[in-house]
Amino acid sequence: MNEEIQLxxxxxxxxxxxxxxxxxxxxxxxxxxxRTEFNNKRRYGLHPDVVKVDKILxxxxxxxxxxxxxxxxxxxxxxxxLRQGFSFDYYTQAKNEYxxxxxxxxxSSDAEKIWIGRGFNSIVKKYDQYNQ
Length: 132
Ligand SMILES: [Zn+2]
Known about the structure:
The chain is of the alpha+beta class. The chain has two domains: about 1-45, no CATH class; about 55-130, no CATH class. The chain contains five helices and five strands.
């Protein structure tokens, strides 16, 4: 029975989420946003590996952003982040013990917890220094 479900389960070509089984037989995306993003990527001719890594980074960013909400920093259990699909192998920048994901940053607080904060200002300052 499980095999049958797997055979019929379809995934969004953009974000890889399982598509609702009630969707049209020929549905390829979970929503208009995903269809547009997929077509934009194809239009700009990004290498498939770039698209793959972007997807991981975007997911990481969303997990960090959801944890932070409107706070300046939070502590989150590493295990919880992993359960949400966070990948600690991918980041946009690393400095000292900090890892950045675009404008957000995180570091190990202890063996179990991760500190998450906003790193945008320091990135911008550095960028401005090099680009004056
Ligand atoms: Zn999607």
